[in-house]
Amino acid sequence: MSEYFFATPAYTQKYGQLRKIDDLLKHQIIATSWQKGFLDIYKNNELSETITVGCNFFAKTNTLPSALEMVLHDMGIALLPEFIVQSKFANKNLVRIIPEYQGRQ
Predict the structure, then answer these.
(1) d(CA 8, CA 33)
(2) Pick from 12, 19, 43, 87: most CB atoms within 10 A?
(3) How far is CA 28 from CA 25, 75, 81, 87, 105, in A?
(4) 59-100 pLDDT, tens digit each
(5) Which domains does the chain show, CATH number per domain?
């Protein structure tokens, strides 16, 4: 199970695309219960090297479905497991943000 950053097309149109990891600090990040003030992320081709990004979370939720709903309502960006977003991503309701990075596997 891999985690990736997702947002809606409407969110990225309103707030702009992220070009690099540091851009996360300028956006509304939605956190799940296991994300505690920072995110451990990895370049797709360097999964052995952890990059820790400190975040001031815009919102925090206890469940994956509620995090997904917050993203779907254009509230921000979330690092979510691929399995929970598959149908929304396939239907183009979500776009992948900074696709060269991912969360844990």
Answers:
(1) 21
(2) 12
(3) 8, 7, 18, 23, 23
(4) 999 999 999 999 999 999 999 999 999 999 889 999 999 999
(5) 3-102 (3.40.190.290)
pTM, whole model, 2 decimals? Answer: 0.90
Length of the chain: 105
Cβ atoms of 50 and 42 closer than 8 Å: yes
CA distance 54 to 51: 10
Distance CA 57, CA 43 (A): 22
The continuous run of DSSP H or E covering 87 comes out as helix 82-90
Task: Give me the residue label for tokens 């690099």.
Answer: 20
